[in-house]
From TrEMBL:
Annotated TM spans: none
Keyword Lyase tagged: yes
The entry's keywords: Lyase, Metal-binding, Zinc
All copies of domain CENP-V/GFA, residue ranges: 5-131
Name this polypeptide is given: GFA family protein
Species in which this protein is naturally found: Psychrosphaera ytuae
Alphabetized Pfam families for the sequence: GFA (PF04828)
Signal peptide: none
InterPro entries assigned: CENP-V/GFA, Mss4-like_sf
Similarity section: Belongs to the Gfa family.
One GO MF term: metal ion binding
Length: 139
């Protein structure tokens, strides 16, 4: 079924199923997402009126709501992985792309808050790429 999606956290304690369709997929470069992910940007899909069901590990789910903002993040209390959050303000389930085990069905819609981008993440096309861990990283 095209509108059925599944995912899990890194340690496997939390598993979920989402019924619904994704309307958008945003790569958010805001400073909150940088802190929250420890990386250049968040990567979240949004499913309006989607139905989220925890198949496993619901008691391990924690949600952080940032004061005075709509920024929220759910995560596994055992491994810290980002997992879906219901965003009340927009009546949508927000799904971190990396948490999905089923295929990510749509390409990114847009990069947002690029004015806040980390300086180091501006020109990643020019960075050398390797299939695996290169020798220089092992020494
Ligand atoms: Zn986990
Ligand atoms: Zn953000």
């Amino acid at each position: 079924m095209a509108n059925k999606h599944r995912g899990s956290c890194l340690c496997g304690s939390v598993k979920y199923e989402l019924l619904g369709e994704f309307q958008s997929f945003f790569l958010c470069h805001c400073t909150r997402c940088q802190k929250s992910t420890g990386s250049a940007h968040g990567a979240n899909l949004f499913a309006k009126a989607g139905t989220l069901t925890w198949l496993n590990g619901e008691s391990d789910v924690r949600t952080y709501k940032h004061p005075n903002s709509f920024h929220a993040k759910s995560f596994c209390s055992k491994c810290g992985s980002a997992i879906p959050t219901f965003a009340e303000s927009i009546n949508s389930v927000m799904v971190p792309a990396g948490s999905l085990d089923s295929p990510v069905p749509i390409p990114p819609t847009a990069k947002i808050f690029v004015g806040s981008s980390a300086q180091w993440s501006m020109k990643l096309c020019d960075v050398p790429s390797y299939e695996r861990l290169p020798e220089q990283a092992k020494s």
